[in-house]
């Protein structure tokens, strides 16, 4: 079938197989930040924004993104730059493999809820798994970012 | 691995239903459960053009389209006002936000899964399912029907005045539940639903009547013990049967206590 979508602002029209997954489509278009960490839709590493909504690209047919806007970390560098430094400063990233999924879902969280409580952060990021940390570093990093933003006013 | 040869977006329910009569074709929900399976699908049927992705609220009922996501259930103000947050409580620990942005009500109810939080909470409400050919069927009846080739169009939740409480036990947040429990009071006697036994959620039959007015601790304990005795439980990787039966009485008692509180405020 013919797939038409916008990937990080670029319009793409391409013939695809019916069972091509969105993750394989975006990777084929150079978005290598999007990776597979599991095969049960449980790790969040493959998170992309579909019309602004975070979804698991490993579990979605590319065909279903037809007519929609798809964003990956490659297209959201500026928005990510705001807070990733705070997370890194907490030493939260160890192997770093989970990082792109975390960053994508944090972008979605902050767009929806610019001033979340710790519990709201934990709940929103519960679908992003990290094998190195206990998630506290990430939480401290996001908290530090929110505090800094408040100080700036 | 799941392979799919064709992908279609029918313009009408009749067209979708016709296509689904071929056993090699499949309706797509969020595809999250489906993709864990193996095999080959001839045509995947996407219901996205049928306008089934909204929750409509009227004076009498909520009409929840089959393609509504679990996240929509979680964040819908009216539905959570009516259920005192019980619908949100039922879905909020299912994997993660991204997952719930994809998993659908239709797939969740159609699957009649033993572990289902979604089935548990809706069984405690006055819920019916609308099937394209089968018409409107009470949810309690639908869960006992064997899967056929029909299409689940929407859920209908009647706004019967009352209250409902949802509780589940998980070994770890976002894991499958070890036991699910929903207790509602929609006028008359409370209705208690237990799921993840690990069998499919059931409305617990033959429970003792509770006194009108305030429920004493003794009455609540007796009711909860009777629920544990009436619900068949089994063992699997998450818990043994005896532990599940114990959980059944604990969660039922807690839910009843909360329900008594909510009734007291109203
Ligand atoms: C790893 C994992 C963990 C989970 N954990 C939980 C949990 O803790 N609690 C919980 O309650 N649930 C849990 N679930 C289940 C999940 O919430 C969904 O219920 C499940 O994925 C099915 O929904 P779906 O939209 O993905 O349907 P799909 O997987 O797309 O479809 C499921 C079945 O229903 C059919 N179908 C879909 N829509 C319709 C329709 N409208 N009419 C007729 N047939 C239809 C499909 O053809 C398919 O046979 C989990 C699922 C997974 C994969
Ligand atoms: S790779 Fe998509 S959720 Fe794990």
Word description of this protein:
With 153 residues, chain A is α+β, with helices and mostly antiparallel strands. Chain A folds into two domains: 2-74, Ubiquitin-like (UB roll) (Roll); 76-152, DNA polymerase, domain 1, CATH 1.10.150.120. Chain A has five helices and five strands; from the N terminus they run E-E-H-E-E-E-H-H-H-H. By secondary structure, chain B is α+β, with helices and mostly antiparallel strands. Chain B has a five-stranded antiparallel sheet with strand order 4-5-8-6-7. Chain B starts with a strand and ends with a helix. The chains are: A alpha+beta (153), B alpha+beta (266). Bound molecules: flavin-adenine dinucleotide and FE2/S2 (inorganic) cluster (FES). Flavin-adenine dinucleotide sits between chains B (26-34, 36, 66, 94-95, 103-104, 106-108, 110-111, 115-118, 151-152, 176-177) and A (40-42).
Key structural traits:
heterodimer; A: 153 residues; alpha+beta; Ubiquitin-like (UB roll); DNA polymerase, domain 1; 2 domains; 5-stranded mixed beta sheet; 5 helices; 5 strands; 38% helix; globular; B: 266 residues; Uridine Diphospho-n-acetylenolpyruvylglucosamine Reductase, domain 3; Enolase-like, domain 1; 3 domains; 5-stranded antiparallel beta sheet; 12 strands; binds flavin-adenine dinucleotide; binds FE2/S2 (inorganic) cluster
